[in-house]
Amino acid sequence: MIAAAEREYDAPAREASAATVPLLAVEDLVKVYPAARATLFGRRRSLTAVAGVSFELAAGETLAVVGESGCGKSTVGNLVLNLITPTAGRVRFDGEDLSAVDDARWRDRRRDMQLVFQDSRSALDPRLTVGAQVREGLDIHGIGMPAERRAEAEAMLEAVGLGGFADRYPHALSGGQQQRAVIARALVVGPRLVVCDEPVAALDVSIPAQVVNQQTDLQARLGLSYLFISHDLSLVRHVADRVAVMYLGAFVEVGTRRQIFDDPRHPYTRALIGAVPVARARRSRHGRPVRLTGEVPSPLTPPAGCSVHPRCPFATERCRVERPAALRQPDGRIVACHHPETVP
Ligand SMILES: Nc1ncnc2c1ncn2[C@@H]1O[C@H](COP(=O)(O)OP(=O)(O)OP(=O)(O)O)[C@@H](O)[C@H]1O
Ligand code: SF4
Ligand SMILES: [Mg+2]
Predict the structure, then answer these.
(1) Which residue has better confidence, 246 or 290?
(2) Is the CB of residue 70 below 6 angstroms from any atom belonging to ligand 1?
(3) Which residue ranges make up each domain of the chain?
(4) Most exposed residue of 24, 102, 254, 320, measured as fewest CB within 10 angstroms of its CB?
(5) Are 270 and 292 a contacting pair, CB within 8 Å?
């Protein structure tokens, strides 16, 4: 594989730096969208989509970001890929501050960091064959000799289970096949990080497992890191090494897959995980799931103090006024709650 082979010469340097520097380090990211227009009462309200998110991702690791619709997952993905500008905070890729890189450097970084879109149908160009679209990334980045690119694109299509499909147009592929073509197009340039935003959201229930299994096989072969944004907790349970649980723009709990699914601590995580059938089956071992009352507040009018407090059965006066800091617990996970020990 050209893309992987070309990079092998600098692998020792990468391994040495991986021991000390995480592949991705996100520090206190904030994204505030200014108000589009004045409300009925003349007040303009800005919207804080991401309210101070920090995390690290190691080489070869998959971190899943889960949470209800509108909590800020895609915004985090877009900030990580520098597709939108943060209001505050920093993203470092391999130790390099992405806000400081110039255009020439971005060419390399674009190759290192790929996005797999939510909607594969709109991500593919209907006028080009899938082979041409997979090859396009190699052309843009000048990877390999022109004559080699066709073979390279076909090899990547084969790796995602689309051998022989290079000359087909997107409309002649099923939804799952389109999704795999999008994955092939992202992986062919040899990225080190792939942000998957609801990668299998639009597909039939039987297809996600196939697509994800193919991705995880490729991940093992290529040594990729994934930021995996998904609503689908059973899929996350299958692919994630660690899980970040997001609520109203903030990570409320970050832990290993086992910690989050088998022994969740934050009341919101308990509520979210308790809603999954497989977790319900285990709850006799791990305590009752927490039931939150009411609806998720609007991000235009977020509550003071802990953002979960209007719905949390364990809320105290302190929760109503003081935003809990995200603190590392003795078992290594991070929890943003004033009373994580009191949750039964
Ligand atoms: N360009 C924008 N301008 C203003 N507000 C925005 C913009 N993009 C997103 N938002 C708001 O930011 C918040 C977070 O949006 P985001 O797309 O990150 O949520 P999400 O967790 O990915 O949701 P979903 O699961 O539905 O995809 C939402 O309240 C959304 O309305
Ligand atoms: S800080 Fe308070 S309101 Fe927030 S989740 Fe913890 S107990 Fe509930
Ligand atoms: Mg989204």
Answers:
(1) 246
(2) yes
(3) 2-35+44-240, 257-342
(4) 102
(5) no
